[in-house]
Amino acid sequence: MSASTPTPEALLRRMEMTVLRRLDGLLHGDYHTLFRGIGIDLADLREYQYQDDVRHIDWNVTARMQTPYVKEFHEERELTAWFLLDLSGSEDFGSQQVSKRMQAIYLTAVLASVLNRHGNRFGAVLYGAGKDSVLTTRNGRQQILRLLHGMHGCKPPDPATSGSRAGTRLHQLLETAAGVARRRSLVFLISDFISEPGWERPLAALTHRHDVIAIRLYDPLEMSLPDLGLLTIQDAETAEQILVDTHDAGFRSRFVAAVGEREERLRESFAEAGVDVLEISTEDDIVDALYRFSDLRKHASRLATGGSAQPWRAS
Fold first, then answer.
1. Among 13, 164, 239, 270, which residue's beta carbon has the most beta carbons within 10 A?
2. Model pTM?
3. How far apart are alpha carbons 252 and 64 in whole angstroms?
4. Quick count: other Cβ atoms within 10 Å of Cβ 243?
5. SS3 labels along 177-219
């Protein structure tokens, strides 16, 4: 990846020649592990087993038999996928060559291309330019290009010149998605989750109807500050500036503690919503991250089975 983002056409050509072949080789037969979908036709009932999704428990049969039973469904040959893309101002941050926005574009291009190669339809809801933009579900190479062009064109207003001081309202993206994703779908929510409060409940509601994968993007510099002396830090979404002394060990310690508290709140929110979470850094290789996630998703228990929420980091 270079510091400048290539055009959608150039990016797609490069991925078709290199990245997608590599991903296919890594996944082998695990495509349905990463992109699993659940059919709408009830196939059978069976006793609950460890790692089953408790959302599929048939409570009427369970009460009658005095032991948990789960519903089994016919797997759909084709699934519908939605990309919920947070393209707000904070996504422009990147301490090295790759920003969170660039990582989101590359990641979306890879996922959409793999979905398309298996004949699946996908759409998107883009948040970031003041009004959500909806790309209806289709398949085909042109649909990938429409999606990538939409991401390139979805630029939030500059708060320093526009006068806008609003932060990200992630709940708006989720509420829009709930209105457009009518049939049960695979949903990729790609965001850094730097947002005003209130997104947790809409995410939980979305998870009740869809198979949701939350992909959280972050930059290592957001987790800990090195000793760089006096720095002026600006909020990308409000243009608010603050002068900090990173040479102060006490300040760096308080920063790490605040990050730890935020990480714990995020884990709790994801656990309550019952979503699978993949965390990807701006320094991570996307193909390796997806392969690791596929392997972990195959073997790890669902959050809803009673385990604690442990987001899966790519590194």
1. 270
2. 0.78
3. 58
4. 8
5. HHHHCCCCCEEEEEECCCCCCCCHHHHHHHHHHCEEEEEEEEC
Whether residue 73 contacts residue 40, with contact meaning beta carbons closer than 8 Å, is answered with yes
Distance CA 266, CA 313 (A): 14
C-alpha dist (Å) from residue 24 to 19, 143, 186 = 9, 21, 20
Residues in the chain: 315
Please report the pLDDT score of residue 306 as a whole number: 42
Residue ranges of alpha helices (H) inside the chain are 8-14, 20-27, 31-34, 59-65, 100-117, 141-153, 159-162, 170-180, 200-209, 249-273, 286-299
In angstroms, how far is CA 87 from the centroid of its own chain?
A: 12
Domains of the chain plus CATH, in order, are 8-38+81-313 (3.40.50.410), 42-73 (no CATH)
Q: If we measure between CA atoms, which residue out of 220, 210, 134 comes closest to residue 176?
A: 134
The label of the residue with tokens 């050509």 reads: 13
Give backbone dihedrals phi and psi of 165, rounded to 5 degrees, phi first.
-125, 20
Least confident of 159-173, 209-223, 266-280, 295-309: 295-309
Q: Let me know the angle formed at the C-alpha of 20 by 18 and 22, rounded to the nearest 5 degrees.
A: 70
